[in-house]
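Give me structure tokens for this 769-residue protein.
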Amino acid sequence: MNFAKYALAAALCAASSTAFITPKNARVSRYNAGQQVPSRVMAATLDTPTTEAAGPSVMRPPIDFVWSDVASQLVEKFGYSQAEVDMYDGEVENSKENLIKIYKALQMARGFENACNQQYMQGKIRGFMHLDNGQEAIPGLVDYAIKNGDKKYSYYREHTHAIASGVDAGAVMAELFMKETGTCKGAGGSMHIFDKSTYFQGGWALVSEQLPYAAGAAKSILMDRALGVSDNEDFEKVDVAPPTDDDRISIVFVGEGGAQNGRTAELLNSAAKDNLPLLLLVIDNGRAINTYTGDVATNGSVFDQGKHYGVPGLQVDGYDAADVAKGGKAVIDYVRSGKGPAILQVHTYRFNGHSPADPEHERGRKDEKAWARSEQDPIKKFEDKYTANGVFTEDELKEFKKEVLAEVKAAVKFADDSPMPPMELAKELEYPDAPETDYNLKPAPAYADAVNARTISPEQMETVQAHIAGLREKAIAGDISIGDAINLAIHEEMLRDPTTTIHAEDLQAGSSYDIPKLTQQTYGKTRAADEIIDEGHFIGKALGEGMNGYRPIVELMNTNFGIFGMAEISSAGNTYATTGGQFDMPMTIVGAGGTAPNQALGAEHSQPFHAYVMGIPGLKICSAASPDAAYGITKSMIRDNGPCFLFAPVKMMKEAKGTLELDKCAPLNKSALLHEASAESVAAGNAVTVLTYLHGVKEAQMVIDEIQEEGFDIDLIELRSLKPLDMDSIRKSLERTNKVAILDESTKSGGIGATVSARISEECFDLLD
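Here you go.
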């Protein structure tokens, strides 16, 4: 049985992959998809295939680039001179040290993935795992040209990207083993490698979700420069400007299949509009999972898609790792220089299936794997090239490989010997800030006044302070609306903490309810961003900012529009736990929502999105049916280090007026007793606990007098904290009334009321009559 397992592991490591449509400028006119491709080990030239050399039918031929093909693109598309292109060539070809660095990165990638496959077959790695064999030119480039301070965002096939970024191989392997010494304490697993010290920020499992996150990370670099702040050794913002030669970038990896996702267009638009220091690295292995990409996509030339946005792109051949390093570094330096975003597309072949459990029944997959392993192995290409020209001897390369494989062996042993995480870890990783946190006690950043003084002009400050003073006067007079109360809280917190940012549609105009009013006019376009009409995109950008020391606020004109951002909201909720507590996610989402009784809002605008997000781990969810609740909860959410979502009643945003307890943060784990049943009604058994939220609060308050006239009374509890649910307040009321009615504003199945009812049945059943 063991022999069978090892044989299967060896077969999977040996297998290869891929396919795809031929890029328009590829030098492959000699072949058409489906033609037989000759073996490179035969003496016959590619122009004169022989019967002996013929291989299997290959759906996507190689592009066979030489350096001049890459160099001409750099001159034409990136504006490099021939002398500059020659410099990039020489930095690799004339440097044995750099060639060794690249070769070791190739061997580490291959060796580590082979070891992963072996451990998977032995049952030590469980769950989903995706290997990178055949695509080693990409980690070779990362190791050669990407710096520690660069923000790195990858997808589920990220082991080699992490290691090439400087993440310890033992910690990566331990994470795959689900061990406490893993990069994320075993909480992330194969698809979620994160490492704060190297700014390796995922490992994201939903295809292409990482694209807007990387845009947010790139924007955080611009905000560091604009505000004059930087990270200290604990990765906290301090009042120290980045160095004058700060050339950090954000790099995001995506497959060419994933690049067909609409998020790519949104990323290119955003990156071009804000001139973000961002590199989109497209790993073009010709397969969307295992499906031949040409079967589902018309345009495989992703590197050309930036033309519409003024974003240049370069295509390189992943078969030649040295050329990828040279061309890739030129593109990276273009981004570093401040000229804006760029695209790098690496044409490559994946030697394994989508995952070890993959049956690979897709058209042409198995034949192409065997061909690619024989004909498109970048390690073999490197070895043949540099032993033939005398740069290395075979013995030298064998020694380098031996060194690397010893590191891989040590990584496996480290993972094997490491302990499993403690059982209590899951509870510890639920929230960065405990539900009972008193946010009034959180200190403001010491540098707030200094940053405000250098980023907000005296005229802007005078205007916003007058605006704040006007709102505070309304609050004292009892004449402030819910929308204005939230706007006041936002301004107070953005001045209190300059790392607070805001994203919204129609932001300049104040959106629909004045929530972001005067933010961009005060704090500028970098901190207060008007966004395209796609909530997923700007929630994703906010996530990237949140991972990099900022406190983003996302205003949703209508919370039901958040349906577009469900993936990003889910990942925001999971980030703290998935990263083993490395990355906080101080994101606040706020907006008007609810189903609005007796109002013709239309089906799309009347969905109970508050119920939809209840199942997302790590997310604190509140509702506010009054200005005072909205104000205090908003302030607390902005100070919280985890993701929070505030729902306000859409039809009460302007009509509900009241006073505010100014400068006071409200708890995020408590309900509010708005009306207490009389002692007489309780003694007579005529009192009922009524639990409601959003528009239900107004509906219940309107009938209290009528209820009392009939000899009954209610404990009216506003469920301001929907998650976590305040069971203490519910239990205390039920101890008095022994009866409960839930006035819900969501679906009967899977809704808020269903959750509350289930909790009462489980925890308070004996208190009911």
